[in-house]
Amino acid sequence: MSVRVLLLSAVADLSGMAGVAGQVAAHAPAEPVGAYALTAGRLWSVVGALVGLAGVVIGGLALARSARRAGDGGRRGAVAALVAGLAGAGVGGLVVAAADGGPGTGYGIVGGYVALAVGLVAMVLGGLVVARSRRTA
């Protein structure tokens, strides 16, 4: 059951409008989604988390390369980490914004938050590499 439905039914119950609470509860999903069912929201949150994770790996490798100062100092890796982190965080943000329910409802909100966090870590790593490469250039 979504948070909006719970809040609206609580307000309707407190205000004494039991008929409105019944109508609000009627809009709740009829069948719960299984724990292992792959819904569209869950799929997009997994995609966002994997893109963000790729950005974290690329950013970590670029940060290690910038410490050695070999080649271009990891600038290409930094840009790739920034782009992948932005894409992962963007997909995660869209999943969280579009979710109508909380955890366990099949909207992928938990994975969306994970994608946001991993994408932000990738962007921070990419930003560190960019800052380090500007300092040495």
Note down, in words, how this protein is organized.
This protein has 137 residues and is mainly alpha-helical. The protein has two domains: 1-30; 34-136. It has helices at residues 3-14, 18-26, 40-68, 75-98, 109-136. Helix 4 (75-98) packs antiparallel against helix 5 (109-136). Keywords: Membrane, Transmembrane, Transmembrane helix.
Strand content: under 5%
Characterize the biggest β-sheet. none
In whole angstroms, the N-to-C terminal distance is 55 Å
Net shape: elongated
The whole-angstrom Rg is: 21 Å
Number of domains: 2
The quaternary structure here is single chain
- What ranges have pLDDT less than 50 throughout 5 or more consecutive residues? 17-22
Average of per-residue pLDDT values? 79
**Which sequence of SSEs, written as H and E, runs from N to C?**
HHHHH
Give helix % range: over 70%
Number of DSSP strand runs: 0
